[in-house]
Specification:
It contains two helices and five strands. By secondary structure, it is α/β, with parallel strands linked by helices. A three-stranded parallel sheet has the order 1-3-2, covered by helices on one side. The radius of gyration is 14 Å and the shape is elongated. The protein starts with 6 loop residues before the first strand and ends in a 6-residue tail after the last strand. GO terms for molecular function: carbon-monoxide oxygenase activity; flavin adenine dinucleotide binding.
């Protein structure tokens, strides 16, 4: 089964992702391994998807002082 039609937007920064989400009121798409199958089963029907998968700021590990950070899009 195919998902319902939706608008697709690709963000290149966190700021643009937030702006797109405010404007289009959709769902964030990172890898799609959870959302796309749910859409195929028609359990989710977002009108738009904002792809954040290419925002480099959300990937990686870094440290500031004694605090370690893991970006939301970091893979193993």
């Amino acid at each position: 089964m195919y998902p319902p039609k939706f608008e697709y937007y690709r963000a290149d920064s966190v700021r643009s992702a937030v702006a797109m989400m405010k404007e289009h009121d959709g769902k964030f798409l990172a890898g799609g391994q959870s959302l796309i199958p749910v859409m195929n089963l028609r359990l989710a029907d977002p009108s738009s998807l904002v792809d954040i998968g290419r925002i480099d700021f959300l990937k990686g590990l870094w440290q500031r002082g004694h605090v370690h950070y893991i970006g939301a899009l970091t893979t193993h």
